[in-house]
Amino acid sequence: MKLYPWLIKPYNNIIRKYQTKKAHHAILIKTQRGIGASLLIWFISKWLLCLKPIGIDSCNKCYGCKLMSSNNHPDWHNFTSEKNNMFNVDSVRRINKKIFEYAQQGGSKIIFLSDIEKLTESAINAFLKTLEEPPSKTWFFLINYKNLNLYSTLSSRCLIYRLFVPTEQNSLKWLANETTKKNRLHLIALRINQGSPLSAKKFINNDIWIDRINFYKNLYDSFKKKNLLKILPLLKEKNSTVKIDWICFLLFDAIKFNFNEKNNLTNFDQIELIQFLSYNYKNAILDASLRTWMHCKYRLLNISGINHELLLLEQLLRWEKILDCVLAT
């Protein structure tokens, strides 16, 4: 297992803080998914738990390194919640129990919370005291993927480290070595996934790439036949929110096309469909369409128990009304 190229500099910067005794006991990484933040924390933790580190690198030979490599180190506590489950006060009590135990290897103890969005408000309040007065040689690592300032009290007890996506050029270079698909597809996948190279790689190698092609083909056909309801079966089938993203990217591309920003298109393999939208609808109509789809996605994700099929049907009818049913042939 190796660090991704774009993580080497952040790793070096953080390790040097530990070497010079200037490291904060709690680091909160603000980033987006698909960059490898958890892997970065694992490598930093491995160095902290290494018995004989060599400069900024762990030795990979000592007992501590072997335990980390086997994911069996007793002083490495990776607290993750199952999908859709939250960290509550009881979860924090389990963390505190680990914190105040003596390190089994006699060195550091590491607490890793992989997504602070999973912390309930009561759990955060219970966790604050621990962050304020931690036992010696106890290090905390937390990740905030939403990058929102909803956890200001928690953030105030941590050192904030922002982990940005690599440059498009560096990501494309990495993807060229990681996939066998055409380089042209790499840029599309990268832009669809907000610059995340790991998500782009998964997207390229997954059937979802074929789903995207078929979805756009059916969407274009529904436009030409003046019947947007034709895409309802595809929308409700699976990955509804992902397909809403595809619609939003497409609408945004049409707006960019109207501003002559052709080099910055996301779906440049769908230029015919983008031109169709650009030529037939003004930016105000495209923008209104974009906003309604974003609101639809928000409702799907945040209203529990909502009927997805009815909501998507309502949205398609609303979209037809916005477009005023003036669909070109």
UniProtKB/TrEMBL annotation:
Enzyme class, broadest EC rank: transferase
GO MF annotation list: DNA binding; DNA-directed DNA polymerase activity
Pfam family for this entry, one: DNA_pol3_delta2
GO cellular component, one term: DNA polymerase III complex
Domain DNA polymerase III delta subunit C-terminal: 208-320
Gene Ontology terms describing biological process: DNA-templated DNA replication
InterPro entries (alphabetical): DNA_pol3_clamp-load_cplx_C, DNA_pol_III_delta_C, DNA_Rep/Repair_Clamp_Loader, P-loop_NTPase
Reactions performed catalytically: DNA(n) + a 2'-deoxyribonucleoside 5'-triphosphate = DNA(n+1) + diphosphate
Keywords, ordered alphabetically: DNA replication, DNA-directed DNA polymerase, Nucleotidyltransferase, Transferase
EC number: 2.7.7.7
Quaternary structure, from the entry: DNA polymerase III contains a core (composed of alpha, epsilon and theta chains) that associates with a tau subunit. This core dimerizes to form the POLIII' complex. PolIII' associates with the gamma complex (composed of gamma, delta, delta', psi and chi chains) and with the beta chain to form the complete DNA polymerase III complex.
Protein function: DNA polymerase III is a complex, multichain enzyme responsible for most of the replicative synthesis in bacteria. This DNA polymerase also exhibits 3' to 5' exonuclease activity.
Name this polypeptide is given: DNA polymerase III subunit delta'
Source organism: Buchnera aphidicola (Microlophium carnosum)
